[in-house]
Request: fold
Amino acid sequence: MNRNTIDLWVGIFVAIGIAAILFLALKVGNLVAFGNTPGYHLEAAFENIGGLKLRAPVKAAGVVVGRVERIRFDPSTYQAIVTVKIDEGNQFTADTIASILTSGLLGEVYVGLDVGGDTKMLRDGERISKTQSAVVLEKLIGQFLFDRAAAGSGK
Amino acid sequence: MPSAVQSGVAHSLRRLGRFATFHVERLGYAARFFVAVIGNTPAAFRRLHLTLREIYFSGVLSLIIILISGLFVGMVLALQGFDVLQRYGADQSLGVLVALSLVRELGPVVAGLLFASRAGSAITAEIGLMKATEQLAAMEMMAVDPLARVVAPRFWGGVVSMPLLAALFSTLGVFGAYIVGVRLIGIDAGAFWGNMQSAVDFRQDIVNGIIKSAVFGVAVSLIAVFEGYDAKPTAEGVSSATTRTVVLSSLAILALDFVLTVFMFRGVS
Reply:
């Protein structure tokens, strides 16, 4: 086989190979979320984060406005400190409530933001003061059983 | 008869020692050979047409088997995955299951195994036969370095082809899963692609998959050219070298895959 035909085939091969990588990047993955999207950080302290994971979405009114970037344990207050990155252009009032929610019974765990009525806005690095911890199903069931038992003995 | 027992023990110890030193020595030779091949890299790219020819032989001619296997692996994964996911009412996550397993594991590993048996064995047989028919010795007589002329282009041809083949394998797999999941079973196309896109991370999953396939490409190509270069110059020697290439490459791919997976995906949620 002569050299030109080989070059042509190798060219086609490399081209469709790169096209496959692009397909994986754009259609299968989310290249848009890749890299440093502009935004700012907020912190929130929770009693219990349940099953919250890194890169979990942060939603306001059901719309994804950011991602969880860091989760650490604060040994002085025995609370979990969650650092979230909010996408540029989204502003939240200083009395925003952050809660850890689950979409559906078995769905993904995310941070929900409920906006309050304050005129002051949260700025980069500030802490969301009002938080609501994750609902741990086992505790809920335990409480339910305890209440039932208490109600039964009261009768 | 203590002397017979003693000599028997001594004999098996000697054999063990010989076995160990032979393999350690061979490993050292392979490492030296690897450095020499890397050292001859400029030669492979100066005479680019030689490398292009090898990309043609190991990459383009492997396309058919890679594309068809990818398609069928994706289709089977979709059928099996749907069967399990449906029991938990999570059939919308079919795209996530298929894409993550293909991009992270099956794409690089299965494409690597196919590449080792399709292209690696051919490279070993070719170089081994060149050695058996004294073509390599003839080149040295003409002051042509066989490492630069024969080995380095084949090595780099394999290294370039492998990541592209793995990416094509994953792409065709996702496409096969789309055909089965969306067209045949009837999962919503929006949920299929949308869940996939929100779960597959470019840096974490796709780039790591490409790194994996590049590492496999280096390993398989090195084993193939080394076994060919080191083959006994007989018909039997070439045939056993070809077998060793396929066996060693497959083991190397699986072992490296485990090590790379531990490093890449350990801390990921």
